[in-house]
Write a structure and sequence with these properties.
Chain lengths: ~130, ~130
Amino acid sequence: MSDKTKTLTKGEEDVMKILWMLGKGTVNDILEHCDEPKPKYTTVATFLKLLEDKGFAGHTSTGKSNMYYPVVEQKEYAGSVAGNMLDSFFGGSLVQMFSFFSSEKKLSSKEKQELLKLAQEIIDKE
Amino acid sequence: MSDKTKTLTKGEEDVMKILWMLGKGTVNDILEHCDEPKPKYTTVATFLKLLEDKGFAGHTSTGKSNMYYPVVEQKEYAGSVAGNMLDSFFGGSLVQMFSFFSSEKKLSSKEKQELLKLAQEIIDKE
DNA sequence: AACATACTACTAAATTTTTAGAAGAGAATC
DNA sequence: GATTCTCTTCTAAAAATTTAGTAGTATGTT
C-alpha cells in the first residue's frame, strides 16, 4: 500500500518543482521560471518527457503547444523524500527530528505559539 | 558563516552513512556493512577517496591498512539536507513541516506526550 | 631472504544523468 | 498557398557518477 514513489534526479526535480508551483504550464512557462543560467528549451522539454515516463507529469495538447501538469502531488513526493530523511538521519523518530530542528533553527515567538497550539491539537485529536 | 556543506552523491552518501555508524573503519569494515549486492573492495575504496577529496572523511595509515574516519559530523550533514528539504517543500516553515508530519505519521501516545513536552520546553526556553 | 597475501593508488570502462542539436509538424503571416 | 516561426519529438553528445581492473607496495610467512 505504501506508495513506492519513484525518486527523481536533481534535474527532474528542479523542473517538477516549477510545475508544482505553477500548477500547470507549457515548456516556455517553465523555462521562464528556471534559474540562471537558463537551460535550452529542448532541455526542459526532455525533462518533462522523463517526468511523464516516470508518471510524475502528464500533458494535454490543446491547440498550439503542450500543457503539462503534475500527476504526483508535491505533498506526496515531499512525504516520500522527508520520510527517507527521517529514517536515515533520525532513526525514524519524529520527536528526535523535531528536537533537532528546534535547536537548530531560531523560532519566532509567534512560531512557538503556533507550535504549541499544534502540539495541543495533536494530543486532543485522540 | 552558514556552512556550505558540499552535497554527496547517492553512492558517496551510502558509504558515508556506514562510516558515521561505525565511527571509524577500514575499507573491509565498511564493506561488511554494505547492503547486498555488495560492491567490490575497490569500489568502496574509491568512494572513500572521493569522500576525502570532498572533505567528508580522513584517514590515518596505521600499520597495515588505512583507518578512515568522518570529518563532517552526521548532524551537520543532516542539518544541511533537512534544511534544503524544509526550504524546498515547506517554505522554510518548521511549523508547516511539523504539521505535515504529524498528520502523515501516526504517533503513539507516548510520542505525543514527548512532543507536547518538547513544545513546552521550546516555549519556556525564552 | 624468498614467497605469498592484503591493501592502496591509479586508471579507465560502464552506466546514468544532463544537455542540446536536428528534423519534421503544425500554426501564423504575408 | 508559400514562407516563416514555433513547438515537439527523436536522437545523440557531453558530463557526472558508479564500478571495478591492474599494477605496485607493504606486510606477513616460512
